[in-house]
What does this fold into?
Amino acid sequence: MRRDDSFGSQERPAVKTLPPRDSAGPESLQLFLNDIRDTPVLAPEEEVALAQSLRDARERMLACLGRIPWVARELCRQYEERAAAGRVPSLLSEAGTEGDKETIRRAHETLTGLLEDPGLADPTHPGREALLERLAEAFTQFDPATRTLLDWSATIARCRRRASRDAERFGLTPEEMRESASQARRAREDYMDARDLFVKHNLRLVVHLAKPRQHPSIELGDLIQEGVLGLIRAVEKFDERRGFRFSTYAVWWIYQALIRTLQRDSRAVRLPANLYDQIRHLGQAQDRLRTLLGREPREAEVAQDLDLPEPIVAKLMQARVGHTSLDAPVRDDGELSLADALEDDDAVDPVTLLDSEGMRGDLGELLSGLGERDQTILRMRFGLGAAEHCTLQQVGDELGLSRERVRQLEKEALAKLAGEADERGLRELL
It folds into this structure.
């Protein structure tokens, strides 16, 4: 599908998303909301046509990338890394995650075996075309995730004008490189065009789901942005052949993205997702019991309602307590803040401690430029590191030198240290 394609008699402009986060204010958000207000919802037949365009473009990316040895090697490398970490599904598409693990393993073995065949690297080999076809077949059986295909297609497309230089690295001839780059570029552009249309005509769904879930700690624009990411994920995984409307399928992905954002950013101290869900259920149980009992429920009653041990409920209640700013006033006149009331006069000032640590590191770098004997003399004389302050005589006894010789060496070492400090702009340390 090209950029100028449209459905019916109404022309569909390119998708518009929110402005960058650092510039998204109330005015720009309102402009965005006004822009999508009149965007029509796709008709069922339009959804089917767009979904078919997405699937067709994706299949063309698979067919193109599957014949490139470099892509097959990269796929095998990522598969082996993620298999060792137990994260293979993150590399696969929706169909791949539902597929037989044994089929994926056999596809990986086939790709590995084909990549070791010397005929694959020889353009004159009579069986090379058959090897490339088998490579593409195994690649299609593996069925990598759409986002991975888009990344690889972009990498290949960038080599269209420098095919002669990059062909050998990708395991192709210059002619094959140019052809593969053109095919990858066209397939990727068609996929992105169809995906953008899908996203544009469902942005109102994101706003509809985001508005009821606003939080004081999160800007509405940021929440909508996260919902759009969930919408994009839904577009990439949507299969119209199952007979569902896209909005029915996309709601779950958008909702998940919104909830994860609230879990991640709504608190000053981030909580794990499972703990956030438990705290939410705790609040619901407390509200339910408060209405039923007419008073604040006890920990034991909440624990019984949630079927959780009392110690777990106590920890959840403690984690549910909100945070208080150290700048919050503790008196009506506002002259005394919480930080003033909590200040420990006997504690070491963090700024002073940080400066001391930094100066110690800088001084260590200066000393490392001296000889071992000079370093020992200065450390013993000035008590640097674990050493104690020592007299000239004590240093001389330690090194087997006279008191006068130690004095001379100390003077020379300090001169060297001063010169090094001047070069680094650290003279104030001395």
